[in-house]
Design a protein that fits this description.
Pfam families: Pkinase_fungal. It comes from Candolleomyces aberdarensis. InterPro entries: Kinase-like_dom_sf, Pkinase_fungal. It is flat, with a radius of gyration of 35 Å. Helix 12 (about 505-525) runs antiparallel to helix 19, helix 17 (about 680-685) packs antiparallel against helix 18 (about 690-715) and helix 25 (about 1110-1130) packs antiparallel against helix 26. By secondary structure, it is α+β, with helices and mostly antiparallel strands. The strands form ten sheets. Strands 2, 3, 5, 7, 8, 9, 10, 11 and 19 form a nine-stranded mixed sheet that branches. Strands 12, 13, 14, 15, 16, 17, 18 and 20 form an eight-stranded antiparallel sheet that branches. It has 30 helices and 40 strands.
Length: about 1300
């Protein structure tokens, strides 16, 4: 167990949370076996068979271990037990026939008698063709055999609750049969434990030929024994069967406190079915609540309120039933006289955790202690409630504190019953490697490939068994597994049958209950407690005699004292991401500490009211759940109610954007924007008309919450309980004032529970959308949005040959990142795939163990052109040569970096050259370049499309004969990349994007010092890789157009592709800004770049000996256009997107639009201030300075005809470095403004293509086509547009 108990390296700031992995709606068990296996892999350990017997099997009778007892049984089995593998005797026979001997063996063993243990009622049965009936939808599986309930008659149906020990058999032992057998066992157990409420754990058996495997499944963890040869080791087989056939029900995993009852008549005449979720269940379960004083009480289930069909077995597994008290009547049960319907909660807790009743009692004790203080009104936690307008609020609060009235705000627990802890993980158990539920083999085509989940286990190359091709589990050196804490089962009994707040009749009813919830949270605040799981399902309401609704706050299992000092646990917990606080969901405080601001440099930032910084959690300031996080959850519930729970399509569409979740609980862009940005505009557009007044109130609440979190972080005051008083007062006042007049909105009805409203249950990981068990309470599903880059149906195997040793490597495509359907055949035809290494397995292909997904780029360059890898190697060689110069600091290209103002920049550049570039006698890979390529976040990404252009200025003469280009031969090239990156305009925030652009300027300076130009700087080529600390590091990609500035090669006539959105102005217009020595004055410059309206481009460049060439500044200018693109087109703000549409347009001949020209020649600060979202307005002036620097530099260089003078580019490099360095010193106010995700509504636009060259995303390989949004078309790559 030392491997399992190894502490994790990362900091645990709070009890980690994860989403439930639940089954797809109405999904058949046989269809989701692989998904179940992937979900269960992290919880399965392995051990030796003898260890399994000692720790997990029921104990043997005391005398059975004597040799004479075993020999006596073996003598009785003479002629019954087989002495050869089933595959040898029954190679083509059915499993039932091959393993029929087991039935005879069990019959002989069952006839034995032991003094210390009695034979149980369970029997061994072969049931390969029996249909299994279940109260849970999807139970279409079958099993080969079982030890379970005997048949009551010949026509009795086999129910899932009859199966005590399921068994799966296979005559042959091969990799496919082992995989299939394991998945059948795991999926069967998963379904049975979802169906049968009695189960604490389950045992199972699987056999392949002569190898038997034992299984143990529990809510804490699961264990698989290594297989053993039962033909040779018959003694061990006999002991296993004796253990099972002489075990008690409790030893076989049945909870003695729960029993099945099949009533002839309904038990309860008073209880009514719950129409909200539950459906009448066929089987009744009798729960026992032991009471040593008054005797046990029994409660029968009448309806199911909540029960989720989970994929994995381990976990909390919570069920909620409507019950009524019953008493014994003969052999049956009857309703106890005078009994009233109640609610029972069945949940699995950590063995060392307090029960919810213990937590509730301690909370009430602390609230009572606070109320008994004579000076409680002057408590620091209530210092913000001293204003006269708070008098009514305090008076009502005082009434709640008197005579224990506060208890009425909570769902009181009437009784509880706690079971015994589950078994601990044995010391010899270890993580399975390879994973127990093996991945599906890869075929050459037609079948998809399953890649096992790598969240909590590692893979190594297993050794092969030469006899049958099977793999055995290898030892993992240092697995990073969590500690599997033992669980115990807890029954909680509640007297009140309540309704969730989002299922109340009207919006007014719901907001009344939310206002009472704020009072309950104030009670917990005064007692020093945090709830930590405020959600729509836990804020319940009970209707009183007058028809009003009263709060019943439930689910205190996560509640704890704010300063209890207990360390966070390592087992993940489930939660409701829809209603989690922003800081909890993003795992970051909005602001951490104060920073010195250079007023002279960043004076535009000092008046920003909403300055903020998002910093990763640290050991010094770990992220903890605080009092405001509970209040913020109330805000999210209110927003959920007015959007998702109203029968109004625009409202629900907005809810679909905000209330989404992923396996890693990462919030959507819309969710982040709904907390950090003003929401009045969005709500005003989507809310039903009577609810429009609520938009202003919710915006005020949001603003209060955001400002409180910001100023608390500024002072590092998260542990100061007094700092939460003001936000409590503001929230109370907001809701009190709102509820003073509910006319117009209070009686707006909420959608009924069976409507098409989204379910608040979170989406689960991997293909597992949340769904209630259909037979126990089905709910409509909120279907998750499909990701771009869907799985491709056809797989391709790519071969790589190592020219050094002749080794061959094979890779199969997994999904398509980029593949465009071109009209013309000739061209570069670039494809990018996500793929993984495979190896030959018989006639098919299997994933190679220990491999990770990679990226493959397939491109057709000219035959005589260097490959991208050759270009990259030469570039690194030239950079290394520059690094080796002893006088590189005095190099002409860096002479403008001698200014003291940029001393820090040049020192950082020096450190980069010394620590990152210099290698051991050979060029090393600079970290800013993508040496092992890219893949985008998710299955695919899209960038603004490329068009074709020529590198020389076209002739204006009339051409009599067609002047065709030379058609150069092509060669096909495969590039393999290992790094998984994200394009700069798809990063989470503007601050992340600008940080990467700052690094991009450093990378271009490296190329500048080495004498190289990139020639294709675009958002899709400036990639980023997230490091261990959560920061983003630049990865430069796509060097296929890069070359030395003075390489002497003549320009080619074949058209090249490029990205017009980010091309430098001179390249796009095919003209230098200024040519020749004209008189230059400040007024001339002002008139040119400030008052510019319709510029007249100087065409004299055609007469020069040197045609227009790409230079160092053109690369830098592309960075400027990317920055402008990010803050306009990539922000969810309609004015910004409209402005981007004017600038970033192109057509077939690549002519420059007037707005694109004005954006480079004229002052852009005023235009940007009008269109940018408010937090980004400080960037308008910063980008105007960058634009001005670029224009003046190009103007002066053209004035001196100095385009070939490399030293003339030093100044603009220095200025760009300084601008970005000062800009990134303080990102408060704009740094955490979120960018739209690739699948959000503000998608990257695509230029209109030429008539004959429309590029379309290839849907057959997984790239999703996107609709036109806000005037922007879906991203598409254009081809064969020529300037001639």
């Amino acid at each position: 167990m030392q491997e399992l108990a190894s502490s994790q390296k990362k900091i645990l700031h709070e009890t980690p949370r994860k989403q439930r992995k639940e089954a797809v709606p109405d999904s058949k068990t046989t269809d989701i076996r692989t998904v179940i296996g992937e979900a269960m892999n992290p919880e399965v350990l392995i051990c030796k068979p003898a260890e399994f017997q000692a720790h997990h099997l029921p104990p043997l009778p005391e005398r059975i271990r004597k040799v004479d007892q075993i020999e006596a049984i073996k003598a009785a089995l003479k002629g019954v037990m087989i002495n050869h593998p089933p595959s040898a005797a029954h190679p083509r026979k059915h499993e039932a026939e091959a393993f029929e001997f087991l039935q005879k063996v069990c019959r002989v063993i069952g006839g034995r008698r032991f003094t210390t243990k009695k034979r149980n009622r369970h029997q061994f049965r072969l049931v390969p063709d029996a249909k299994i009936h279940s109260d849970v939808n999807g139970g279409n599986f079958r099993i080969d055999g079982l030890i379970g309930e005997p048949k009551s008659n010949a026509n009795a149906k086999l129910h899932a609750t009859d199966i005590i020990v399921p068994m799966e058999f296979k005559v042959e032992r091969t990799r496919p049969t082992v995989r299939k057998n394991r998945l059948q066992v795991g999926s069967s157990v998963s379904h049975i434990m979802n169906d049968d409420v009695r189960r604490n754990f389950m045992l199972a058996i699987s056999i392949e030929d002569d190898r038997m495997t034992l299984w143990y499944f529990s809510r804490s963890h699961s264990v698989k024994s290594e297989s053993f040869d039962y033909v040779k080791d018959q003694d061990f087989l006999i002991e296993v069967l004796i253990s099972l056939m002489f075990a008690t029900d409790e030893e076989l995993g049945l909870d003695p406190r729960v029993q099945i009852h099949l009533p002839q008549e309904p038990i309860s005449t008073k209880s009514k079915p719950i129409k909200k979720k539950g459906a009448k269940i066929a089987k009744k379960y009798i729960y026992e609540f032991p009471d040593e004083v008054n005797g046990s009480r029994f409660f029968s289930t009448t309806d199911c309120i909540s029960d989720f069909r989970t994929l994995a077995v381990a976990g909390r597994k919570t069920r909620v039933f409507k019950v009524i008290q019953v008493e014994k009547q003969g052999t049956g049960w009857r309703e106890k006289e005078g009994a009233e319907p109640m609610v029972l909660k069945d949940v699995w807790l950590d063995a060392n955790a307090r029960t919810e009743r213990q937590i509730q009692n301690q909370l009430f004790t602390d609230i009572q202690s606070f109320s008994e203080k004579p000076d409680w009104k002057s408590d620091d936690r209530l210092h913000s409630f001293t204003d006269p307008e708070d008098a009514d609020i305090m008076q009502a609060f005082e009434a709640v504190l008197q005579n224990g009235n506060y208890k009425d705000l909570f769902l009181l627990i009437k009784a509880e019953s706690v079971g015994h802890p589950s078994k601990e993980v044995m010391g010899a158990a270890r993580p399975a490697n390879p994973p127990v539920f093996l991945p599906k083999p890869v075929t050459g085509a037609g079948e998809g490939m399953r890649i096992p989940s790598r969240q909590t286990f590692q893979t190594t190359n297993p050794a092969s068994n030469p006899s049958n091709g099977l793999t055995q589990e290898d030892k993992i050196e240092k697995p990073e597994y969590r500690k599997f804490a033992p669980k115990r089962r807890c029954f909680l009994l509640f007297a009140d049958e309540c309704t969730p707040v989002d299922y109340l009749p009207t919006v007014g009813d719901a907001f009344t209950v939310l206002s009472q919830c704020i009072i309950a949270l104030r009670l917990m605040f005064c007692a020093g407690w945090v709830h930590r799981d405020i959600s729509a399902g836990n804020v319940l309401a009970l209707q009183d005699a007058n028809g009003g609704w009263k709060l019943k706050l439930a689910d205190l299992e996560y509640a704890k004292a704010f300063k209890d000092g207990s360390p966070p646990t390592t087992d993940p917990k489930t939660g409701t991401p829809y209603f989690m606080a922003h800081e909890i969901l993003t795992r970051n405080y909005i602001r951490v500490g104060t920073q010195d601001i250079d007023e002279g440099t960043l004076k535009e930032a000092r008046n920003e009211a909403r300055q903020r910084i998002v910093c990763p959690p640290s050991e010094k300031h770990p992220l903890r759940h605080n009092f405001q996080h509970d209040l913020e959850s109330v805000f999210w519930i209110a927003l959920w109610i007015v959007t998702a729970r109203i029968d109004h399509p625009p409202s629900r569409q907005n809810a679909n954007l905000i209330f989404t979740s992923t396996a890693d609980l990462h919030p959507s862009t819309a969710r982040q924007s709904a907390f950090v940005l003003n929401i009045i505009g969005t709500l005003s557009e989507c809310l039903v008309e009577p609810l429009l007044p609520l938009a202003h109130t919710l915006e005020k609440v949001r603003n209060d919450l955001y400002r409180a979190a910001f100023y608390r972080g500024d002072k590092l005051a998260w542990q100061d309980e007094k700092s939460y008083s003001l936000i409590h007062a503001k929230m109370a006042i907001r809701f009190v004032l709102l509820l003073e007049d509910t006319r117009g909105w209070g009686d707006v009805p909420l959608a009924p529970p069976n409507s098409e409203a989204p379910s608040p249950a979170p989406e689960s990981a991997a293909e597992a959308a949340s769904v209630l068990i259909a037979s126990r309470g089905r709910a409509d599903i909120y279907k998750p949005t499909k990701k771009k880059g869907a799985k491709i149906s056809m797989k391709y195997i790519y071969e790589f040959l190592d020219k050094v040793d002749g080794s061959r490597f094979f890779f199969t495509t997994h999904s398509s990142i980029s593949d465009y359907r071109t009209v013309a055949v000739a061209g570069r035809k670039t494809r990018v795939f996500k793929f993984i290494e495979v190896e030959k397995w018989g006639t098919s292909w299997c994933e190679k163990k220990g491999t990770e997904p990679m990226v493959l780029k397939v491109v057709w360059p000219d035959t005589n052109a260097r490959t991208e890898m050759q270009i990259q190697d030469q570039l690194f060689t030239d950079i290394q040569s520059f690094c080796g110069k002893p006088d590189r600091k005095s190099y002409d290209r860096l002479h403008f970096f001698a200014d003291p103002e940029v001393a820090g920049i040049i020192q950082a550049f020096k450190d980069l050259l010394q620590n990152k570039v210099l290698g051991n006698g050979h060029p090393a890979d600079p970290p800013v370049f993508l040496t092992k390529p890219m893949t985008a976040t998710g299955d695919g990404f899209q960038i603004p499309s490329r068009q074709t252009f020529q590198v020389t200025t076209p002739s204006q003469d009339t051409i009599k004969k067609p002047d065709y280009r030379k058609f150069a031969p092509k060669k096909r090239c495969f590039h393999l990349f290992a790094e998984k990156c994200t394009s700069v305009d798809h990063l989470p925030t503007v601050g992340d994007a600008f940080s990467v652009l700052g690094q991009c300027i450093i990378a271009l300076r490296l190329m500048f010092c080495a004498g190289w130009i990139h020639r294709d700087i675009a958002a899709g080529n400036v990639l980023a890789l997230q490091d261990a600390n959560g920061g983003w590091k630049l990865k430069f990609a796509d060097l296929e157009y890069a070359k030395t500035f003075k390489d002497g090669s003549p320009p080619t006539t074949d058209p090249k592709t490029g990205t017009p959105y980010f091309m430098a102005h001179e390249i796009l217009s095919c003209n230098y800004i200024r040519v020749g020595t004209q008189s230059l004055t400040s007024s001339t410059v002002d008139e040119t770049f400030q008052m510019y309206e319709e510029p007249t481009i100087d065409d004299s460049s055609e007469e020069l000996e040197s045609p227009l060439q790409h230079n160092f500044q053109h690369d830098l200018e592309s960075v400027f256009w990317i920055a402008l693109w990010i803050i306009t087109a990539r922000i969810d703000h309609t004015p910004s997107i409209k402005h981007a549409k004017l600038i970033f347009t192109s057509n077939a001949n690549l002519s420059v639009s007037p707005h694109r020209q004005r954006a480079f020649f004229g002052d852009i600060s005023k235009t940007l201030c009008k269109c940018l979202v408010e937090p980004l307005r400080p960037l308008a002036r910063a980008l105007e300075r960058v634009r001005n620097d670029l224009y003046i530099s190009a103007f002066c260089r053209g004035d001196k005809l100095a385009w070939q003078d490399e030293t003339s580019y030093s100044l603009i490099h220095a200025k760009m470095a300084v601008r970005f360095a000062f800009l990134l010193k303080d990102t408060r106010g704009w740094g955490d403004v979120p960018l739209n995700l690739p699948d959000s509504r503000a998608l990257p636009p695509a230029p209109e293509s030429a008539a004959e060259a429309t590029s379309v995303v290839s849907a057959s390989r997984g790239s999703m086509e996107s609709p036109t949004i806000c005037g922007f078309k879906s991203p598409a790559r254009e081809a064969s547009n020529k300037r001639s």
